[in-house]
Structures
1.
Amino acid sequence: MIVAKKELLIKSIALAGSSLQLVISVIITVLYVQLRQTGTTDQFLFQSSYVWFAPLKIYFSSGIDGISLAMILMTALVVLAGVLVSWKINKQVKEFFFLLIVLSLSAYGFFITTNLFVMFFFLELAVIPKFLLIGMWGSGRKEYSSMKLALMLMAGSALVFLGMIGLFYASGMQSWDIQDIAKLNIPIATQRVLYLLLFTGFGVFTAMFPFHTWAPDGHSSAPTAASMFLAGISMKLGAYGCLRVATYLLPGAAQELSWIFIILASIAIIYGAFATMMQKDLKYMNAYSSVSHVGFIILGIAMLTKVAITGAVMQMVSHGIMTALFFAAIGMIYDRAHTRQANELGGMLKQIPFIGTAFIISGLTSLGLPGFSGFVSEMTVFVGSWERAGIFYRGATILAAASIVVTAVYILRAIGFAIWGNITNKEFLKLKDATWSERTATVLLVVGILIIGLAPFLFVHLINLDTTTIYQKLISNVLVH
Amino acid sequence: MNSYELSSLLIVALPLMSFAFLVLLSKQLKPRVAGIIGTLTLATTAILTFYVAAGYFFGFGMENGAYVHHIALQFQWLKFSDNLSIDLGIVLDPISVALLIVITVVSTMVHLYSLNYMHGEEYFARYYAYLSLFTFSMLGLVMAVNIFQMYIFWELVGVSSFLLIGFYFTKPSAIAAAKKAFIVTRFADLGFLIGILILSHGAKTLDFFVMIQRLTQAGSPYLAHFTATSFLGLSTLSWALLLVFAGGAGKSAMFPLHIWLPDAMEGPTPVSALIHAATMVVAGVYLVARLFPIFAISAPDALLIIAYIGAFTALFAAVIACTQTDIKRVLAYSTISQIAYMMFALGVSGWGEGQTEGFTASIFHLFTHAFFKALLFLGAGAIIHAINSNEMKDMGGLRKALPITHITFLVACLSISGIPPFSGFFSKEAILSAASHSNMLVYYVGLFTSGLTAFYMFRLYFRIFWYKPVQDHHNHEKHTWAMNSALLVLVLGAAFAGLIPFGSFVSATGSPIILPFNPSFSVVPVSFGLIGIFLAYFFFSKESDRADKTVAYFGGFYRAAYHKFYIDEIYLFITKKVIFNLIGRPAAWFDRTVVNGILINGTAVVTEAGSEAIKPMQSGKVQSYAMFFLGGVLLLVALLFIQFM
Amino acid sequence: MEQVPLSHILILSSALFFLGIYGFFSRRNMITMLMSIELILNSANINFIAFNKYLFPHQLEGVFFTMFIIVVAAAEVSLSIAIIINLYRRFNTIDIEDTTTMKY
Amino acid sequence: MDNVLLFRFEIIIAALILMLLVMSLRDFNTKVTAFLGTMNVLLLVNFLIGWLPMYTGSYFSGFFRTTDLIVFEKNILNLGILLISLTSYQWLKKSEHRLEFYFLMLSSIMGVFVMLSSGHILMLYLGVEMSTIPIAAMSNFNLDEKRSSEAGLKLILSSAFSTGIMLFGISLLYGAVGNLSFDSVIANLHPDMLTLFAFTFILAGFAFKMSIVPFHLWTADVYEGSPIAVTNFLSVISKGSVVFVFLTILYQLFGGLKDEWLYAISILSILSMTVGNLFALRQQNAKRFLAFSSIAQVGFVLVGVAGASVMGSTSVVYFILIYLLSNIAAFGVIGAMADSTGSESLQSFKGLYKSNPFYALFMVVALFSLAGVPPVAGFFGKLFLLTAGMNSKLYVLLGFAGVNLVLSLYNYLRVVKYMFIDEAVTTVPPLQRNRQLTIALVTCTIGLLIIGFIPAIYQYIDQICRM
């Protein structure tokens, strides 16, 4: 009795906190837009800086631009939804929500800071909570998955850190700050090394082929909320890093070497899609489809055109929300039916229409149905990539575009097997539809998807200035040998 | 914003509203109420459409002797770059208005009809929601000002069709059909998308009219750059247009992408009438018509290819239609064949003076076909409703049981077989004469096909309403006012739509043309039609073994046609065997075994092995420790001296 | 009378050094191992003295260092002996091969 | 008079030792709690006095010198012994030789202090020996336990051997420079054959004390054999102090040979990290596990040392401070475990979080600090070492460091997994707590959690290193 009370208290605190985060981030957005309308053109707004390790030039300096703002909004949304979805958690509640909050904090910190060291601090702060979340509340081969996830991410972050030290030394040990380093003109030889280090390192976080294998196992063993965070937020940390650090700070190398990642991304997109087609387990399916979808992000970033980068950012947010919704729906089904095998399910739409509909919506989003966020972001990536002339880039774009068919195939298979059809298992006739918390979470995420999908111009307006900045740096880069 | 623009906005907006309304309140509303709301909304849009159409054709549409496109509304939805952006908007021009009439009228009728037909269905409200969604997307598609807007609504149409085909979502066959329809069209849309990308990059715009203007003007730099490069003898522009056409071919079920349409008949019959007969399937025709100037002026070779594909599909589908026994499938194949008619009509048309009649004829046929084909489907629906089967063998002699259906069906059959004075006659004449002027081969194919058409349609007719009456059926006419009125309204269209002087309204250039009509030309096609009808009468008017004899005579060919020339099997082979087993499975395997197994787990194994390998070092013997110590010293000496030297 | 050259003495000391090392490696008796360590230390001592006498005669640093070494060595040895005796008492062995319970 | 105050630390320790002698005569130590209480209080006082401002300078014609850095290092070590004596409270209560334990520990720390502030190689040598010999006695503390005596024997024999080698090196150095006071060594040092040999032998001697691969082999056995308190002392105090001295020797004494030793050091660092982690992979005995982990840690320290800059020494000192806290906490928990269950196997940690969340949390903080996971202080320590290491552009070294970050994370996460994820094989009883241990653990944990967020500490170290 007492325990139940206590748990409820904890949950309500978590809920209040995450709702507050959402409110605050919305407020910030409003302020930001107002400032921009008054014509402020600094790259980062709301800048602040506190001394941390002065001798090492490490300052806790923060600043927000459109891209990070978009990320923050997405994070806040997903976090709130995650808390709501995990309302039914009844084992080690305190620890669970504590770890969730740590994760969300690390994400916020990562997005708002402009100091590379602090960025790395938050990047790595996010690793261990994932390990524990999967290990302690997970299912299946949780030991293996959690350990693999932790180690691969650690390897990625090691690469990232080496790259960051490189940048620090390239600045003559004067600054870790993105804005200062952006002013530098780093010799191209250095750039090459650092670019590869950083992009690959962040790529591991983004589950870039061939460093993606932590994603399927991790997602499949993770509890619902953890999967939502993992695919929704953590992968975006990597993507954001690829854009903000690797590409933006090392334009010369980006122009020379981005082809490598274009290849990897195209492989990831098409091969991830085909691999998804063969999955029976819904979570595995969505994990692989995430691999395929974040491929679009990498592709957009690596194509180095303004439109493509815009598309990449859109895709980050869109995929963040969409995959969160997908995992939420899968999780709700799993909580009830206790199986995630598509062929063992069936008739869900008949028995639990709300959840079934949520599943269908997320599915349609992920296959890029107009009106949902997936469509606009993918189309932007395609149009942007097509601006890159040359048979190689065109080929990559066509390959990527081809994946929309495969996506349709596996999404519809999943819907056909799991959601439509007759109720095969008599047990399922007892299933109850979504609870209030789950409904709220779903509605929140759907609203997010719809806002981007129906009014993309708002989004583009938000990030336009910053993508321009990045693009300017990319084209106006002078090679130093 | 004048009243016309406002009402044209309402035309799109109303169905969307009713969709939203019905979805959100699907639980609360009583089914009947929901249905009536949907129907009334559509009726309103239909009325508005007529208002707008009248306004356009007899008022603001005409500028110095030619109809020009009128942008009722346009706003930037998603800006890619300075010259590329997705605009949403509403354009009024002859073809769009014509399509508006078709869509709203047929859709209204279907809504009305469904009130009875779908009575007592679970998810009744949801059905109406989907119908409204479809209507909304179709209208948006037709009114698109921007090729990307068209693509957006193109996808929406696809998904709503998917939802409607899969309306009986507990029925495996329905699920399969829905998936098939969506995936096949999606595959085609990929072509469309790439086509758009190429076009947009070449024309530096996504706006239809700017694009047309830039790619048709002689000596425009865009056009020059486009036609400069060529691949396999076709210019880049032709390739782009062909890719776009591929999208159209997917929706309009041109060979070889036609396979989804027959299966789509799994959906409720009114849906088939609306989507898979009258409206969505003609989207491809509309798309080509929309880009017609570019086709005709800058890429006639692409147009020619379209003509041949159309002609072949027309014949091919007609042959299959002769052999099917499921009445809805017969109608489906006839639909394919008829749409192919429209396609090749566009294909044979050109741009110069007097060559554009094919264009008009195509849209004309689209117009008339919508009515009689919808009528046929709704009639078939009535029959199925009455006897709960759509197999021919369960039918026969129903003319007494279903008088109204009988009459309306007969009219429709005559119309589709091109028997004067019914509507089909006029449009088909126009098409054939256009073909005869430009391409004899296509003309002959079309001619023969029209004969076949008459044959299989009347085979259907006789087999259902005459032949050997089936007893033990409670064959009273179950349908009530709603279904009947729908049939009766449509029969008017099927009968008299042909009398409209279509050419004076719709033409490629906008300036009115006169569709040639000379009885001397009509003799041949009509006689072909009559022959077809006679043969059908000969075989199927009463029970006999004549049909079977002939079938036996045709033998292998008949079987092939009966099995739709095994196209489905080929597709099945490609997907199941090739895609799944040769690509999907290996990909999944590769990921688990190679990437994960070797790259990732391999590292772990190697580390373990290393740890085992250096185990002996820690032997526990002080002396061996000391030896390692000395070894270390030597190592240091070596290192230092290497540096020192 | 002329002196022995420094090199001779250094050769002697290094010989002693390596002898000590060899002894430490090859002997199984702990006491003998201690003795060989003594050899090593003494080689160092000889070095100190020699260098002091030959190279830097004006200071006595080497000599003093040697004294300290001897003292410390004594302490070291006494402790080792203590440990060895304890080993012998409790587990009656002074064979180095028997002290390998902890390994890997 | 001022100059006498220079010996403040040594004087206090000496006083304590004398006091213990007196006590042993009037066998005061039979009143267990009173005795231990007084000892802890005295150590605390000793630690606090260390922070009083004091003069720096040298004495005995430069044989003995002290600087702010040295003072700071001594303070760290004082904190170390205080915490160790707190953590080993339970064990000392049981053993009857607690007075001897303190006696030996203090004499060893005496040697350490001498070593730290030595200004002449003779002093250095004496300090090293004075600090080692008592430890050998300590590790043989459980006289009737074979493993303990074996540990003592192994330590004394191999350390004697290494001392011999080092002395030989020193003698050669004497031959090369003629005067062994640091200043003159620095002055007359020039890279020739003789000097290089001398340096090699000396380096080997210190590598042995810091248990750098391949001079590390004694470590695991001695750690495993000795009582936990002693292992704790070995791994923290003696190792830490030698690292401190090593900085002086490398940067100042042999700074002239930098080009020569840079690569040697980086090779040693790579070896230590890799071998240490690889061995730790298989260990089941907690002490042995920590032994290898400490070897790997030293490897990381060497990365910073290879930086050969002020940032290098700063980050090393900073890291040692953090390492000291982490290791003491870890050993504290292991000790508590051993005291109640008598098992030192990692297996017995399974499901610890369910049975003893209290200890599990301390342990996990310590382990994360060792693994270098934020927000625990170890994260900053390790990353600053890497940052410093970048200074001399040894990219291969950094690459290996990166690999080893992952390896070590695996090692520590394995234990975390035992405690948090796995189910207990035999349910661990709630471990008995005692105030002293709790105080120590809380101190360490709080320290680990906040050090990273108090910039002042790093800034202070940086400043005293620049002097």
Note: The interface with chain B takes residues 153-154, 157-158, 161-162, 165, 191, 196-197, 199-201, 203-204, 207-208, 213-215, 217-218, 220-221, 257, 259-264, 267-268, 275, 278-279, 281-282, 407 of chain D (CB under 8 Å).
2.
Amino acid sequence: MTISAERPTEATAGTASPAGPRSGSSWTNRPGWMSQHLGTAIVLGFLGYVFGHWWGNYLASGYTYIANNGQNGVADFLGLLFMVIGWLLGIGALNYPILKLFGREPGEETPAPGLSRYFRYTLDHKVVGMQYVVGVLLFLFTGGLLAMAIRTELLNPTVHIFNPGTYIEIVSEHGTIMMMMATSIVVGPLGNYLVPLMIGSRRMAFPRVEAFSFWIFSAGYMVIFSALFYGGFPTGWTGYAPLQNQAGPGMISYLFGFAVIGIGMMSAGFNIAVTIVNYRAPGMTWSRVPMFVWSILATASLLTLATPVLFTAGLFGLLDHLVLTSLYVNEHGGSSYLWENLFWFFGHPEVYIMALPGFGIVAEIVPVFTRKPLFAYKVAAAGMMGVALLSFFVWQHHLFQSGINPDMRPLFMLTTELISIPTGFIYLVGMGSLYRGKMRLEVPMLFCLALYFNFLIGGITGVFLSDVPVNVTVHGSFFVLSHFHYTIMGGLVFAFMAGLYYWLPKMTGRMMNKKLGLWHFWTMFVFFNLTFFPMFIIGLLGQPRRVFEYAHNLQGLNDFSSISAFCLGASFLLFFWNLMYSMIINPKKAPANPWESLGLEWQTANPVPLYNFERIPVIVTEPYRYSEPGAPAYADFGGGTGAGAGTVGSSVQE
Amino acid sequence: MTMSGRLGTVLGLFVVAVGLIIWVLMGLLTPGTPEGVVNFVGSSAAGQPVNMTIQTVGSIGFGDHPTWVSYLVKTPQGKWVHNTTWQLPANTQVNVTVLQYDSGSPLRNQQWGQVTGTTGNVASLNGTSYSTYNSYAGNGVGHTFTVPSLGLSVPLVGVNGNLSLCGVAPCTLKQPHNTITFSFKTPAKTGEYHWQCFVPCGLGYLYGNGGPMSTYGYMGGFLDVVQQ
Amino acid sequence: MNNGSEMRRIVTAWVIVSVIGDLLWWFLVGPHIPPGNMTESAHWNQFDFNILAVTALPVVFMVWIWLGYAVVKWRDKPGVPDPVGGEAAKASRGVQAGWITITSIVVVSAAIYGTIALIGDHGSGGGEGPNPVWAPEGAIAANNAALAGKATWSPAGSQPLVVQVIAQQWKFTYRYPAFGGMETDRLLLPVNTEVVFDVTSLDVIHDFWAYQLSVKADANPGVNNVAFADTKQQGQFMVRCDELCGIWHGAMYNSGRILSKTAFMAWATKTEAQNAQNTKYLPPFAWTYTPDANGASGGLYPDGNVTPYSPYDVYGAKQPAA
Amino acid sequence: MTDTYKDSLTAPNETPEEREYEFRAHIGSIWTGGRLAIGMSTFLYASEAFAYFYLRTSNNSHLWRLPGQLAPLYYGWTVLICLLLMAGLANYGHRRLKKGFTNDFQVAGWTGVAAGLIALFFQIWELVVLPFYPGSSGYASTFMGFVVMNIMTIVFATYWMETTVVRALRLRKELGGANPELSSAYPARSFRANVSSMSYYMGFIAIVSIMFFLMFYVA
């Protein structure tokens, strides 16, 4: 943890220069190629890998079990470990912690202006947000390509494109990459970029922790991708032991990858939660916090508290692999149930880590486009926190058929179904906000409506799954697979798209092309449903997950699903084209407030200055006071940027 | 930069990036795919029995994993290859000769000590026919050749582990081995039928089923049954 | 148009669509919902699915109709009045309270019904762990008798039949303690019989899924996971592994069959005789067969407790085990 | 991408009120962050404790613990005493600092850091002298998990403590000279908040050390 007072130090030192006299040398500031940037990170990461791998071979190649099975996991692990350390050293993430050890306080490192700052370790939350945009899209596209491979294999029940080992490798890699991506897809880009803007803060509480979270997230990508070099891992994203213990060194990439991403999740959540609690602008009481910030707060708390359990589970797995402990091996006093419990104790909160930000985005965007206040604000906030709290008490519903505590099943059935009450609040809020509004069907709004459509199916089938008798048939089948794709992709990814179309004009100052956006939306919405709805039927008809062979009578449905999936992939290419076209090839300058939102983030100058607000705004009323002529502006900017803004349309400034 | 310049740059970079990603993915994912199949179709006249010779070796001695146990097959042309996808004609008798070069142990599940699904439910071990092998006696069972969906399973009796066993494939007939022969009939329905060994023989892996048991091309594969 | 008539329209449309949807589901779709009627629990699980479906459909229609109406009517187009603002638009105590009450009632009743179905149907065919609390009459006694080597079954009586499911990478085999403890690789069952499945694994976690029987139980190494099925119809059923268990997971399936009691008896006695030679080498019937974590050739964990312990001996023994 | 820096390199002129507002948020962050760090560590150790009790009660293959199996007791005692000493000194130093005895804080702090380093050394060295191999039982395995987790926590805690004392040394002037407790300068207030959070965290370390000592060496 980096707890310090950078700005106050500088303030009291009475120097205007950001780097005070007592500053340590800050390499990230140096201009040109001599400073630390992505290039140095790659070089040091590579050197670290080479060193670690050599050291592991030196240490462990004589170990009995390694000599026997011929796969030196210790070398692979040390290689990856030193790769991550080298990567962090190279990017400069460790400069400050090391300097701090000697009591030196670097001043606030203001990164060099220009494009190059996106390739550096930076303390500006807006730059970190943009870095995350690129990062999660990279994850998303890698995972998406693997999904295409899966659907290709499933075109035929018995003729195989890939051999079964490769197929399991692809399935596992797809699942893991997507799950890792989904934990950060909103919190990373939009959370980091927007939370300070939306709470009226000039900075994050721990900007170094924030930047660290991104760079370790990107290291996590390399670690999990490296599994392919080691022959993959056969366990799917759930990594069940003892299959996990049996697997080769690819499993180490999975375990270590989750540990690394876990550190990133913890640090991102830690910083954001602390920021929201402490850095809200004056006057922003808890009943005036924007709903997106509520959802990010709930998510950040889950990230911070649930992820340590995943870290423990991964650590245990690594110990089992590397030093032959037997934590997950029944025959040596361990228990395979231990992994299932630890993993799902983290795993279920994680499911809501992947749902809540979507709810937040929708609740934030819908009032803007219906020109109405958000309906039942308090219920929405309570719903988010309620979901977050309840999500710690439902994990055994993944294990209904496992034989673990079977007599507890009614209890977990109850808690699981109870969680649909706070989830239902989101629908109350959404439907209430639509009621007699004046809806503008812009692209972000369409994505929000699609979320309500998709998540409804995902959520309702969740109730089926939580019912133990029905679970007997649908557990572990394509029904489950379809269910969580409806919630995560149909919910979160659609919400992320809504967020991108909505906020990119703020983040980059450029509008996304509406026509292409509409094409993207309709193809994605239609083909998403055509891909995944048949999977409910496929699952009910008895096809288990992660199989490379299935019953001949299911070929029609599977082919339909596969072809739709290819079209869905093409829809993502359309999105990518729109992104490139509107942001780089033919950029159109965005208006300052294109959607006529009352939100604080739209009231700052465009582009957003380094310190976000010229004057710290004072929040004077609740958010979302649309269609209220005479309502006061959301915030008082004290004569700084945004003064005079903050009410919209027919509203009269008082 | 002009708009067309930006367009060209973006498209060019996109093509390069996608090409690179696909190249890396394919490069990583394809080494495990069967490099073709060993084709026994046409190795004998239609309707006539097909002869197939395979061997099992305790450590293959070459490739990425020289310590791993593996099956090898002799092509109709008489060359030993490291390949476990074998194409067979449908509805045809196959005479199999297995040269077993590995030592054995008691079976985890004695069920695999039974000979099932072969012609007459028997196999022959160095000329002596057997239908059940007690894996707790003698040298135990080294491997099995099992095609679950055809109900075919033959225990491959181990050789004495104290002899100096073959460690580099392909092994020669001079090295200690057991010769197991049996016949079975391929099904009329074409398709890919999974076969594997049911002895947990992966040295140094949990339950013995990792490594060679979990990697395609070592201790399992497909019988690709096609019309002749 | 005033507020009231708009709501009336929506509610009317919703009621009509829901009633039609529910009726169509119940009479047209419902009877075809898997897993069918082959066992008692399959029947009740199908019923349970349909109960949930007719509860869920109105909810789905409510949201869809609302969304549809909103998209068509509450749009930004000429003639549409400005939206309502102020306190009334922000919250309505009645609507919120009503929503919370209704969702809570629906959700809690679903949980209560699910619990009743689960307990009344003896675990609904799901894995109930080594000591099932909701067991059919006589099933536990029969299972204990099997362990004591005293299992019997005959077509005449109504004793439960005990079948052990042994999962291994990558195949299920089955043991019938009532027939001399024989082991087969096919699963055949008599009709109108309470079957007790003792599911266990010899290596990693598998899941025994007899699809049409509505039986699903994880096969864990060293754990006996018991599930029950009361067979009702003759016919073929599918057995699949439902928990990812490695490379050949997708190929880990075979079909089983429910026969008449006499046909089953004939098959079982014949197979018992056929397999007798192999059966005598099998270990006595037990809940679990503790596998050696090291596999056939060893070489992973050091054997036994290494005392005195030295890291060098455990990890770096000079000569690799053969 | 649009450039947000070109216009903003000149930092805005903060008003004193704004500065004070942000500073209070900063102090609040240290407070919240410290507590949240305790929360995270609690979940981390709770999952380890869960593993311990889970394996202990399931006792699979009757291998929860081999007869007479015990981690090196003297090492355990040493680590425990050192960690308790570190925690105690952190709290003592914090209290002395509040009363204005900076030197006491310094001495307590450096002693605490030394104690932490000794604990770290013994915790690592304990792995070398283990009388059992890690996979021999559930107890042995969970013990390995605990040791690795504890090593990471000790490193973190010692690091945190070290940075506070070294900061007190380096920033003596900014901390208000001899009487940092009286200084209302921002660095001094920030520093005091940091020390307070740190000593809270050390309290957590003390509780955890005792609990896990009882679990692994006594029960």
Note: Residues 1-11 of chain D have pLDDT under 50 and may be disordered.
